[in-house]
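Researcher: Go.
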Amino acid sequence: MKRQMVTIMLLSAATALGGCAKSPDMKTTDSTPVQEAEQAETAQSDESTGEDSENVADDSSDIDTSSLEVNRTIEIDPTDYSKFNDTNDDGYGEFQGFGTSLCWWANRVGYSEKLTNATAKAFFSEDGLGWKIGRYNIGGGDNVAEDGEVFDADNVDFNTPHKAHIRRSDSVVPGYAVDVTPIDLEEHDFEYYEENFDRAFDDCGYAWNYDWDADPNQMNVLKAAMAEAGEGFIAEAFSNSPPYFMTVSGCSSGAFNAAEDNIREDSTEAFAAYITDVIEHWANEGVVSFQSVTPMNEPTTSYWQAYSEKQEGCHISSGDMQSDVYLELGDKIAEKGLDIVVSGTDETSIDSAIQAYNSLSDDAKAIISRIDTHSYTGSERKQLRQLAESEGKNLWMSEVDGDFVAGKKAGDMASALGLSKWMKTDLNQLLPSAWIMWDAIDTHIDSGNEFDWHSRQECLDSLNLADGNSLWGIAIADHDAEEIILTKKYYALGQYSRYIKPGYCLIGSGDFTVCAYDPKENKLVIVATSNAPSDEYWEFDLSGFEKSGESLTAIRTSGAFEDGENWADVTDSVSVTFDEASKTMKAVMKGQSITTFIIDGVVMK
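Model: Structure:
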């Protein structure tokens, strides 16, 4: 990253980033995200190889590789490749990019031009992560007041504010509906509400106007992200909850019973109109044309409860209720003539994504062009991939993050290796056309905000990443200094997103690598992760290709912030050798590192 391009602070080991290793207000899941059996198998494999790697020195710049024994052979299978998003009918699926949800960090930093520009450059520019996807959250909006009432399931008044309840500085995402008015047909006929409000729905029982200036922060970041990403940026709109007056509880954080639906059955049409009105408005204004939309987020979980301290959310049961939402959305899209992909159902679990899709009606399935899944839990990634292929749907991994760690005594690299492990699992088993992280900045420093860290030192001392801890997000926002603090997780993600570009095709690999092929330029990208504590000598089997390569560039992230590597060009120090006869490549893998090999001249059979 060119420092003059963006205000960025590198997190050094000397100022150990510490943190709310997982503060109570951070997004959590109920179970271990990657299946335990897979974790154990990979961890055991990683640990055992470290003991066998004494024949490789820590400094690999001048190694005589002829005497080295191969510690690991990586088999790359070009016959196992992604078929998702094949737009040119050449048989190869086309990767669409990496990205992030803008909710909630954009809502938090978008007030500051300096923070907005810094995050856009760090995440979306070519000098940064080169992300091409931003998921914009259409807020439902709530009806709250500090002195508001507290209702229960037997006593709900939609027209009286309830007590403010969210205890985060970033997750109160504003809704666009204002002047919300109950429809009283004894006082006025229905035409009155149609003429005097932007929207009115008799079934829902409410009329409302729109305030298009309601969400300036998130929109500021979206505009900056689009400008930095340039051509090919993909904006997706998604909803966590309908507006409060379309819910059962009158609260956009969920139902009183978190396992019950909170969207009212009489409000699915009004909800679809609300979502598509927002999409249509910003397209007509020339601000953004959303390429896709999903109307629900982790809908079958029991996370979303009224008066939650965390965020908006809405339980929507699989089957008839989810189908009704999609059918209404499809009708409104057709009514407006919108050119947009409908995706779903954004379940928190891979396994739930399969169940939810299979439970949709045939008409609802026909509306959905892409399956979006989160990968916090579940193990049936390959089965979901097979389902999407058989149904002729595109496939995105649309959200995940966590305080991941991997590697023994890995220090700053523990969080980087942990994130890489998760990405390898998702990318190899799903072979999706996109991989999108959750809240890119989940930690904030602001001495004037009761919900944030009040000093940089307090935050960094608490996180203590140099001791092998981790955090949600890949960066920290210091609002007092108007600076972004990057972490090693940021550089780990960049080992993928800077080099696996839109148009490339993901191809089969093993537990330690992710591979992508550029059929236009005959280029192969291998992202290799070593959790072993010492350097190793790896062999890459390229025999599945007609030609195994002519030249290579190697980029690496390793070590501590104080003296480690962040996207370092190590082409001259990894001792790469090619054997055209056997179609193999060998290279020294630095202990506890992530290395991206970009190989030119690789030809498919």
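Model: The mean pLDDT is 91.
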